[in-house]
Task: structure prediction
Amino acid sequence: MASQEMYRLGSQRSVIRELFAYGQAQSEIVGKENIFDFSIGNPTVPAPACIKSAIEKIIHTRESAAIHGYTAAAGDQQVRQGLADYMNETYHARVEAGNFYMTCGAAASLTITLKALVESPDDEIIVIAPFFPEYSVFIENAGVKKVVVSPDTEHFQIPLATLEQAITPRTRAIIINSPNNPSGVVYSAETYEKVGALLMKKSSEIGHAIYLISDEPYREIIYDSLPILYVPDFYENTIICYSYSKSLSLPGERIGYILVPPYVEKSAEIYTAVCGASRSMGFVCAPHLFQDVILKCLGQTSNMKVYDENRKLLYNGLKEMGYDCVYPSGAFYLFVKSPEPDAKVFSDKAKSLNLLIVPADSFGCPGYVRISYCVEADMIRRSFPAFKKLIAQYQEKR
Ligand code: PLP
Result:
């Protein structure tokens, strides 16, 4: 007999995956060109040229064991040194190679970090809605309780008063994500300052550190020349979970890292617990080849202009039709208010026009849909008549 808990998890498909699978099946019937699939956040911009040249160089100049062998569990020393130098030069991060733990992407970074931080089943992890639905699974895996902070639907920044109310003596950590999936909003310096001050106050009130887990797979996907902020500058007890899935268009290669800076309270102890948590989940080491590849591509990104152009095309197009859209400053998602209270019903109506958009209920934000614009610009243009038809159904009623 299988574990019923794992069986339940394995047999459930996320709404995103379900829509994506529907799109694949439906395109066999009506033709790929007639399906407007905005469901999934799979980068469409190719990885930058440095990725291919790094792979070629490594393959042609090294022995097999130096390409495909195990690295240390925490990752290759030179790679981690390169990352420390890069973060120090770019963000004045004051970190060392020994603060980095290489992982199989952000999902691994988060599951490991959560497992490393929780001390008792009574611990609580706070998430800020809207949030990446897999957080629920990761928190469940750590065996603790998820506490949801309802969204600030006016600005989609972190709602301070609600966050303060959610903090209890059992709060271990808060997961934040900016640029945000699904809202496309980037948290401001002002937000981080206020959150930092609140967490300092609350940590001293409850008598232990509240850790901030900053989930940053979209760090460099940021528009309108907004600055990229280094979150520990605002709150020292921040652990960064990073991934190259989006910034270098490498989601299938599974590569990222955890950064436990030295100024985090009990930094050495937490880092050792990170090593233990990763070991207990059988990660062994992050893919060797891609550790070396990212060392050769530090500071590079895929061509973000493509996403920026898609962003403008979609945002302006939908605004003009009368959709109520959250202004997107980062990542590659447009968050749109459903013109009827139940976003699932709205998403179903869109589906009948072959428009695949994700209701945000599982992101903790009912009444909204997420439209992923890491797609071909041409598909966005071709989808406009369907978007027009969809909103017209509501405009006629008014
Ligand atoms: N966190 C957020 C906010 C995401 O959107 C994603 C993927 O879409 C992840 C984590 C997981 O990313 P990875 O592919 O690096 O595991």
